[in-house]
Amino acid sequence: MPKVLVVGANVGGAIAAGDLAAQGWDVTLIERDLKRKKPCGGAIPPKAISEFGVPETIIERKTTRAVIIGPSGSEVAMDVRGSKKRPDDYIIMVTREVLDRTMRERAANAGADVREASFVSHEQHADGVRVKLHYRDGREELVNYDYLIGADGAGSAVAKSCGRAPQRHASAIQERLALPDDAMAYYENTAELYLGDDISPDFYGWVFPKSDHVAVGTGCRPEHANQTYQFLEGVKRRAGPKLRGARRILLEGHPLPMQRYKKFVYGRTMLVGDAAGLVAHTSGEGIYFSMASARIAAQVLHLSATDHRTALTRYEKLWQKKYGAMFDFLEFLEQISYTNNFAREFFVDMCSTRDVQRFTFDSYLFKEMAQLKPGDHFQMAFEAANRAIATWFWKRRPIADAPPLITAKEALQATRQAIREGVTADAVA
């Protein structure tokens, strides 16, 4: 069977490697640092369990309640459920490094050769690819493969080697906080999202519960990257007493792709997950789409190798057919929801309506677009107009200031880590 190199031993790379190894392929899966912890909120939909076999044993929380807080402090609490009530109406919380390690071990058990190495560059040939690898002991090696899969995240070295122009990245910063039992009890089944200029002018802030701590974070575009520390402090200031007695476990930063590529295939090379820019707008969700793109890529690659009538570019077409409309909708939603505090306040208000909740949770939990009944479009438009007027005239209370909880030096180090990895990442996603 053919030889394939998968760069990036994260969930996406592990899915691609495991799927191909199970088909008898000669698979090499590389990661620059197998012990590395990737900053990530760690929220995944239940669909990941059934579709990709994520084991129940690594689930830390099943969150059934989401609270979204607007710039003024206005709140909307939502039960996590889509158009139809289902037994898996919840958001799964995992620790990212545990998920990566679990899926990587599964790929190894399927027959993939997992190595600690860095991708440097490659050359495309008619009958394969020639790849330059760098090992931690300083050795470099040139190896021939039939195909190459880049699952190496934002700032993908594989994408750059394909001739892609460097992609602009958002910067995400996150702090893992251990809470006393009484404070942790509030977050037992609750995830929080915060919106406002004090949180991020571009995205949102989050407090996601794990088994023994919470992950608190936010993100922003490059032009605001030097303010990530202040934005993180904004999230903690808003959460206030709910984070009482917090003890920091870890402060971390990471780049996020800002846009998806239109092209995922370059000759015998395929890009998946963050390396292809496949991160959902509004939510920043990347884990599920990394796994989904990796599976589609592996299926098309296997079919193409056994039936030469199938072109690798079929991967792009299948992705667009399955998820393109959803990405377009989420991109539009981001453009109208995060532009300023008025738009954010309006978005929070609209989240109290059942139709918006259906759209949100159907797309997140089940990767489906909610179906509207005849007349629903007009009803939603009328309600949106009413709520926009109400939001405009409603006097919003200001948010109180509070002292910072981490030093500027520490936040600067995390921000530099995010920027550095956005520029030099070679085998992480």
UniProtKB/TrEMBL annotation:
GO terms of molecular function: FAD binding; geranylgeranyl diphosphate reductase activity; geranylgeranyl reductase activity
Transport as UniProt keyword: no
FAD-binding domain segment(s): 3-303
Any single biological process term in GO: photosynthesis
Record keywords: Chlorophyll biosynthesis, NADP, Oxidoreductase, Photosynthesis
Catalytic activity, EC: 1.3.1.83
Gene3D superfamilies linked to this entry: FAD/NAD(P)-binding domain (3.50.50.60)
First-level EC class: oxidoreductase
UniProt-listed SUPFAM superfamilies: FAD/NAD(P)-binding domain
Pathway membership, UniProt: Porphyrin-containing compound metabolism
Family membership: Belongs to the geranylgeranyl reductase family. ChlP subfamily.
Protein's UniProt name: Geranylgeranyl diphosphate reductase
Organism: Vulcanimicrobium alpinum
